[in-house]
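Narrative of activities, Objective 1.

The group set out to show that a structural description can be obtained from nothing but a protein's sequence at a throughput compatible with the screening campaign. Below is one input-output pair from the validation batch, recorded exactly as produced.
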Amino acid sequence: MPIPQGLLHVLTVLWRKHYNFSTLPPFPTFTLGMQTDTIHSQAKNSATIHPKKAPFNPMKIIPVTKTNSHIYHNLVQCYEAEFSPITGKKPNDSGLFELDTHIGDKTLGFLLMIDNTPAGIAAIQCKEAQAYEVCEFYVIPYFRKSGVGMEFAHMIWKNYPGDWEIKQIQGAQYATTFWRKTIKCFIETEYSEECYDDPYWGIVTRQTFTVNQ
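Output recorded for this entry:
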């Protein structure tokens, strides 16, 4: 059932009150075509990529801004709901999940659009100079098993060279499998992986690797 326009407006206003976009650095915009596996880069902040297997056309990766932040927050609720059996989270009295990652300041947000349909999200924390962490990453089930998620991650990494880390909580083995494969398909050198006890999440698996310019 579609969300009534009045309620959607209220939710959008509430979200915007809690997120400050004024301090975000400039975002690149990517366009992904789906014919071959050749990558054509016109500039650092503008690129076209052609995955082999994904059948969707066209694909775009765009930054989260004030005007489209409601799309990000709609999809991030799907993400939180899907992971709730593992995280143990429940929605609040309004039916919304509390978020651990907030877009703004040093955290970048991206939307994956396929045929003008919101298909996924990513939240990237800029930890220090050329050091990043994938905090949230989600592709809706309809678009999975097509290579879309891998290409989504690869284009973000390609435009932000430096040191990267990704974490998966205990019980999310399918996510760990996805990230191992995605990293191996992107870089020639081996990545590092460790398990440790995180004060907030408990036992987590972490991959670290470097993206060269």
